[in-house]
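The data are passed on as follows:
___
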Amino acid sequence: MNNQPTIAFDLDERFSQVQYLEVDADQSGQRIDNYLVARLKGVPRTHVYKLLRKGEVRVNKGRVKADYRLHAGDVVRLPPLKVAKKAPPKQLSQGLGRALEAAIIYEDDGLLVVNKPPGLAVHGGSGVDLGLIEALRQMRPDARYLELVHRLDRDTSGCIMIAKKRSYLRHLQQALRDKTAGRGGITKIYQALALGGWPKRVSRVSAPLLKLEQSGGLERIVKIHPEGKPSITEFSVVQRYRDYTLLEARPVTGRTHQIRVHAQFKQCPLLGDEKYGDDSANREAQKLGLKRHFLHASALMFVLPGASDVTRVEAPLSADLAGVLQLLEAQKLEG
C-alpha cells in the first residue's frame, strides 16, 4: 500500500486544450526546445524533449527535432498538458513602482536601462518575493517581452539592461562576450570605494576566479584559484582619501563578484563588503552611514542593433554612497 502523501496543486487551465502558437519575427531563429521551455514554466526540460521525440509537439503539422530553429510564420502545436499553476507574485507596492519609474535612465523600442536601487534583487527566488524583473513586468503588463540582459548583485546599485525584444537580448548578450564598445561590445564602468591606498602601479588585475557554493547551494563564494576562469579587471584611481581610495573599475571579463575579489586580492577590499571585506573597517563604515558594499555600476557603453555609434548611459551615484563621499571630503589627498 502506498502511504506517500498526495501533493495537491492547481492546474493552469490555459494548457488543458490544444494550442496553436504562431512564431513572430522576434522569435525567429530560436531553437524549438528553448522556445518550449520558456513557455512551459514548471514542465521539466526532460518532458519537453519527450514531447518532441513522440511528435506530440509539431511545427507546421510536422515532426521536428529539438534543435529545429523556428522561422517567422511557423505554427507550433502544443498538446493538452498538465502544468501546475504558478503562485501569483507579490504585488508591486506603489512606492517601489514610483521609484523604479523614476530610475529608468534610458529607453527605446528594444531596451530599458534602469538605475537599480540597492537592496533590490534582480529577480525573485530563494527568500526574495519580488525582484526587479518581476516588478518591471507588473509595471508594464502590456509588454510582450522583458528579460534581463545581465545581472547585478542585490546590494550593487546602478546600470542594468533589460531587453524588450528577443533580438536585442541576443545582440546584447553576444556583445557582452566582446571586449570593447567600439567593436560592438559592451563596456561596464563601476565606482568602488576601497579600503587603504590602491597601489600606484596597479591598473590591471588578471587573476583566475573559481566560484564555489556553500550552505547547500544557497550562498556563493569566489576565490582566486589556478583552476578558476581567466578574469581581468582594469582599475584607475578617481580620488585618494586618508584611509580609502575611490576607484573606477572596468571588468573586461564578467565573472561573479569579480571586482570585489580582485580588489581584495590587492589588499584593498571594498568598503562595506561583508563577504570579502575587513570586518573592523566595515564597522567604521557604518558610522558613515554605509550599510552595504560601496559598488555602483555608474555607466554602460554599447552599440545597439543596426547602429554604428556607441551609446553611453550614466547612472547617478545613489544617495547612500554619495553621502559617504560627502563625509570624506575632509580626508581628500592630493595626487
Q: What stands out?
A: The first strand starts at residue 19 and ends at 22.
